[in-house]
Design goal:
Blueprint lengths: L6 H11 L4 H8 L3 H9 L19 H9 L33 H11 L5 H8 L3 H8 L14 H4 L4 H17 L6 H5 L4 H6 L22 H6 L19 H52 L1
Length: 297
């Protein structure tokens, strides 16, 4: 139900100039019945001047007479064509002074985790200006090195329902245009609880802006895929491939048999000569012993 202009001042006038019940005045002005009773007792709206609804074309005198005659009758506000659509009109979002210093952090969070949002949507959520959003997008803000991304819902700059509505609107718009979100963009659509648990991203100085992907050590993936070789058995380096093993084995067997036969023949031929030499040596030894006996005798 629409409320009259200056509702409390209108209630003060109705209490002073009519015999309407507290409930009728409360329902017409959008107040609580106890609040209207406090106005009548002088405890509420002290010093407020009454606002005449009849003289300002908000209420007919006939409605007041009907209400005074019937305590259950509900007063009807006079229709004013000029007031149509006034409630839907909204100005820029007001940000308290204590939270205005947090707006750059919330803008950076929205730009980082919801890149699909347009500048107009960010401006509506946070209550900022286009130059500020552009400066943070391009990282030309004067304090960009000290700004940490913080969820605007956690800062109290907007409600979670408003943020979800804007994100869904942006996703539908992108889908209608034919654009498909990649995996990285989908991962950025996180909830408020997950975003609050995320660790802050380390920053590099401006002079090292091109070294984001540079690493001093080997990557973990390379270590995982590196093949482990067992060097404990040194003889494994001299093993031939498996395909040539049967033929080489046969050749080695034949060569070994020939060498054994040759060695056997040479040993047999050398045995008689060795036997003769041994007999001669034994005979010489006996002759030596005989000569020694003769010399002693």
């Amino acid at each position: 139900m629409a409320k009259p202009l200056m509702a409390k001042a209108t209630a003060v006038w109705l209490v002073d100039n009519t015999t309407l019940s507290f409930k009728q005045i409360a329902d017409f002005c959008g107040l609580h019945e106890l609040e209207v009773q406090g106005i009548a007792d002088g405890d509420v709206a002290t010093g407020v001047k009454g606002f005449d609804p009849i003289g300002h074309n908000q209420l007919d005198e006939i409605e007041i007479k009907k209400g005074e005659a019937d305590p259950v009758y509900a007063l009807k506000l006079k229709f004013n064509p000029a007031s149509v659509g006034e409630e839907k009109r909204r100005g820029p979002r007001y940000t308290p002074l204590s939270k205005r210093q947090d707006r750059p952090a919330s803008i950076l969070w929205l730009v980082k985790f919801h890149p699909e949002l347009a500048d107009a949507q960010i401006r509506k959520l946070v209550g900022t200006t286009n130059p500020s959003i552009q400066a943070i997008r391009e990282r030309t803000h004067w304090n960009i090195q000290n700004i940490q991304p913080i969820d605007p819902v956690a800062l109290g700059l907007c409600r979670q329902s408003e943020l979800d509505a804007e994100v869904q609107k942006a996703a539908k718009k992108k889908a209608a245009e034919g654009g498909v979100m990649n995996d990285d963009e989908r991962r950025k659509l996180v909830s408020t609880e997950q975003s609050l648990e995320m660790s802050s991203e380390p920053r590099l100085p401006r002079s090292m802006a091109g070294l984001e992907t540079f690493t001093l050590g080997a990557s973990d993936d390379a270590d995982e895929h590196k093949k482990k070789v067992d060097y404990s058995d040194a003889e494994s380096f001299f093993n031939l491939p498996d395909g040539d093993a049967p033929e080489d084995a046969e050749e080695d067997a034949e060569e070994g048999a020939e060498e054994v036969a040759t060695e056997t023949t040479e040993d047999d031929a050398a045995k008689p000569a060795n036997d003769e030499d041994g007999d001669d040596k034994v005979g010489d030894a006996k002759d030596g012993d005989d000569k020694e006996d003769d010399a002693q005798s």
